[in-house]
Amino acid sequence: MSLQIPSRPGVKSQEATTKAVILVGGPSRGTRFRPLSLDVPKPLFEVAGHPIIWHCLAAIARVPDKKISEVLIIGYYDESVFRDFIKDSTKEFPGLAIKYLREYEALGTAGGLYHFRDVILKGGPDRLFVLNADVCCSFPLAEMLRLFDEKDAEAVILGTRVSDDAATNFGCIVSDAHTRRVLHYVEKPESRISNLINCGVYLFSTDAIFPSIRTAIKRRNDRPPRLVSYPSSENLESSFMLSAAAAAAAAAAAAAAGDGDDDDDHRRNEVIRLEQDILSDMADTKHFFVYETKDFWRQIKTAGSAVPANALYLQKAWQQGSSELAPPSAAVLPPVFIHPTATVDPTAKLGPNVSIGPRVVVGPGVRIKESVVLEDCEIKHDACILYSIIGWGSRVGAWARVEGTPMPATSHSTSIIKNGVKVQSITILGKDCGVGDEVRVQNCVCLPYKELKRDVANEVIM
What we know:
Residues 19-214 form the Nucleotidyl transferase domain. One of its GO terms (molecular function) is mannose-1-phosphate guanylyltransferase (GTP) activity. It is an enzyme of class 2 (transferase). Belongs to the transferase hexapeptide repeat family. Pathway: Nucleotide-sugar biosynthesis; GDP-alpha-D-mannose biosynthesis; GDP-alpha-D-mannose from alpha-D-mannose 1-phosphate (GTP route): step 1/1. By secondary structure, the protein is an alpha/beta fold. It folds into two domains: 18-221 and 272-299, Spore Coat Polysaccharide Biosynthesis Protein SpsA, Chain A (Alpha-Beta Complex); 325-457, UDP N-Acetylglucosamine Acyltransferase, domain 1, CATH 2.160.10. It has a seven-stranded mixed sheet. A seven-stranded parallel sheet has the order 14-17-20-23-28-31-34, with helices on one face. Helix 7 packs across helix 10. The radius of gyration is 25 Å and the shape is globular. It starts with 17 loop residues before the first strand and ends with a strand.
């Protein structure tokens, strides 16, 4: 049944109402975030002292004049996963009504929006922010709203510039430099078309986005059935015999199973993605614009990418004079976040870009740089931790060295080639790992509950 969306002509900007949606995915995704996602869902992993999704909420709460009052989190994690986070966030951001909507299966970035369209449209919002939770940036939402109003837009996408080599790994935007109108959009093109890329943050008119998704669903439903590949002429007869037999067997199996192919096709038709199925069509409307951010941006896809994301958020907090950060001193090179319950010996040296979690104990003479140390860890005296993530409850012995490899600030990758093999540039210890005294661990990923009693480099320790 199609949804009739009432038009609201002539809505003035001060009268316009806005909702926000944060897309969090689900447990079958995020395999690249292992081993960290084995113990905590990626959206709740802490960078710069807060869960990744918290940074999205904080940006929404910063939009002036309380223009956004409701936030819907859409994903297919169990409801219990976000229960405590939503309870705490509602107290921290009292101006936001926060609700979790669970998909029955992965529906895609646009399919989830369409599935919950009745909830999203309740109250008649005129505009809808859509944020991907695995994005690290300053979220210039107020600036996107301003551009939206100035251009009388139907959609505004957040964009940023990357190197030409990296651009083809993202959705690429071709825009008019003067008007900022999006002329063309291609998701992960095979050849370079632009180095202006999609940041995964959008602002849509509700009158435009849901009809666009409905059109994409109809287009997919109207597609002819999948075509079989025809055999070459020299094998035509034998291939036809085999194909006919196979088709008969498949038909019999489908009949016995109650026509399961239709169910599969139905599921495929419901998986609709903004990036592949919607944005390229929107570029034809002449009401699609791009706000290009000059501030920081990167994806949080792999576990290693949490370290540069941690650094970027800490640097932003430092620039804004956040009281959460440790004051600079001879032992603290800012920016550094130290949880109030952590114990750090005054002779240890931390920073820059370090986060220390709850109940961590850092011993004398320890050096930590460009790293995340998660809750309940113990770092014994004179240990050194560089470009690493130390998992919950892990122990690093005296004079041990846990280190990764620094990457250029402009890089959007966290992998390097060592001895002809691709390895993580960031060293990651999973939950409850142990590193013995005087042991060196370099460019490794260590699964939970492992004890490292000898030097190891460029390995996945299972």
